[in-house]
Amino acid sequence: MFRSMARIREQIPEEECVEILKTQLRGVLSLLGDEDYPYGIPINHYYCEEDGKIYFHGGTKGHRIDAMRKHDKASFCVLDEGRAEKEGDWPLRFRSVVVFGRLEEVEDHDRAIELTRALCHKFTSDENYIEQEIEHAAWRTLVVCLTPEHMTGKTVLES
């Protein structure tokens, strides 16, 4: 059902893909939007090692939510920051991961709070700030889960 990579020599192992998903802060979530136009949105995420799923949080309304509720299939692309092969070189070697899967809302309120807290820890260790944000915004926050069905990653040298 899913295509193989065209440049198989550039493919990275699944463990490396997971590491990128765990460490990078943002990616682009792509959905089928209004009038079936592709809709890609930059978004932060949390990769949960326990269940192998990717979680997002945000508002309860908008284009992203409407698109997801209309069609649950999505792709999520994450790109690392890249690095120079040699000091002072302009081309960067970077790695990317693309995950295909299905989206669903997290219905369990306690689980949604737990996942929101984990996502926040990617950005800050300030527990007071995190708890204050959860207290003030959790009631108007939707947590969404991407269950991976296929994942590929590759490394590329810009040129």
Structural account:
By secondary structure, the protein is α+β, with helices and mostly antiparallel strands. Helices cover 26% and strands 39% of the residues. The chain is built from four helices and eight strands, in the order αββββαβββααβ. It has helices spanning 14-23, 63-70, 109-121, 127-137, and strands at 26-32, 38-44, 46-48, 53-58, 73-79, 83-84, 92-105, 142-157. Strands 1, 2, 3, 4, 5, 6, 7 and 8 form an eight-stranded antiparallel beta sheet that branches. It has one domain: Roll (Pnp Oxidase, Chain A).
Please describe the structure with a list of short key phrases separated by commas or semicolons.
159 residues; alpha+beta; Pnp Oxidase, Chain A; 8-stranded antiparallel beta sheet; 4 helices; 26% helix; globular
The total domain count is: 1
State the helix count. 4
CATH fold name, please? Pnp Oxidase, Chain A
Radius of gyration: 17 Å
Kindly name the structural category: alpha+beta
Task: Give the DSSP E fraction (strand runs of 2 or more residues).
Answer: 35-45%
Which of globular, elongated, flat, extended, rod-shaped describes the shape? Answer: globular
Please give a quick description of this structure:
The protein is an alpha+beta fold and 159 residues long. It has helices spanning 14-23, 63-70, 109-121, 127-137; strands at residues 26-32, 38-44, 46-48, 53-58, 73-79, 83-84, 92-105, 142-157.
